Amino acid sequence: MSCWSFWWRPEKRRPAYDSVQIVAGQFLEGIAYFSYDELRTATENFSTSNKIGRGGFGIVYKGKLRNGLRVAVKKLAVASKQGQHEFLAEINAIALVTHPNLVRLIGCCVEGTNRILVYEYLENNSLDRSLLGQKDTRIRLDWNKRSAICVGTAKGLAYLHEETVPHIVHRDIKASNILLDKSFNPKIGDFGLAKLFPDDITHISTRIAGTTGYLAPEYAVAGQLTMKADVYSFGILILEIVSGKSSSKADWGGSDKFLLEWAWELYERGSLLELVDTELDEYPEEEALRYMKVALFCTQGAARRRPSMSQVVDMLSRDIKLNEKQLTAPGYFQDSNRLGAGPTPSKKSDSGYQTSSEPITITHVRPR
Question: Which of 232, 172, 194, 195 is nearest to 360 (CA)?
């Protein structure tokens, strides 16, 4: 496959508050400091009726500030071992990352044991809820919207991987972490698991964290994290967007196959269009085929064979012929309780703005 480079200039955004805030003696540029009482008032005392998501690291509530601005308030779990210094350092890193396809951090709260992040509020919640959730939460997304979600998410990831300094690997790309604004533009959220990559480091050996079903096999087994782990997760996400089905459900083709397994089988049979969501009345067949083939390029078993995210953006955005001679079988993993059955089901959330699921241990790998 030939290589392409594709660059974006992030929009210059005016921070919600102009003044530089001082928190515990540290400067946070463009980030507002909120008191705990302010956020408690904004969320009506963190009312369960305002809960819009939850995960392994806390609960997210919708709220309204005194100036009328609607926000998403992530209240991290009290049991978190993260101290004030580490929390503020992480916020500083996130505050410098601005792109149209990334959720914007507005501010934070650091009082006693309270660690709270305040994000922009996105009207259409998460892709997981809008496309893959219960029938009463689903929104009918036509091909144009799905295509734009794929491309926009790819651009956000490419920015994290290639334009931020140091580079950032998200580590938890999945449908519940792709949030949709009122026009259904995608924004990548939840940087709770993100890792910073200095230019001179090729990989980081780390404790496995993320969501089962989206984890690249080399990361799930050896804990060696590279940007290609995000690429793998994004490939799974494309298949979910095109099919309208969760990657965690083992019922494809009337057998105990998972989404990636079934996609590869259909590809080998020349019947990949069978994967397309039956809810799509009209869609461009050649473009849908290209998107699914890009997903297979992203999920190849060998990480080095996967494209970069800037290459992925180019492949999705342009009507080009892919060099399928270079496409190899996908890699996937399974745990010791389900040998021969494919990937372990993902831990589901009840909405978007989800914090990441608990770390897992994978004990067995079977390449295709």
Answer: 172
The CB-based long-range contact list for 201-206 (8 Å cut-off, 24+ gap) reads: 202/226, 204/169
CB 69 within 8 A of CB 39: no
Residue 16 lies in a domain: no
Helices and strands in the chain: count of H runs, count of E runs: 9, 16
Tell me the C-alpha distance between 276 and 289, whole Å.
Answer: 9
Distance CA(347)–CA(358), nearest Å, equals: 9
CA distance readout (Å), 173 to 145, 156, 179, 344: 19, 11, 11, 16
Could you report the per-residue pLDDT of 132-183, keeping only the tens digit for each?
A: 877 777 899 999 999 999 999 999 999 999 998 778 888 788 898 899 999 9
Residue 223 structural domain: 127-365
Q: Can you spell out the DSSP letters for 273-306?
A: GGGS-TT-SS--HHHHHHHHHHHHHHTBSSGGGS
Q: Are residues 198 and 88 in the same domain?
A: no
Q: Are residues 344 and 209 part of one domain? A: yes
Catalytically annotated residues: 172
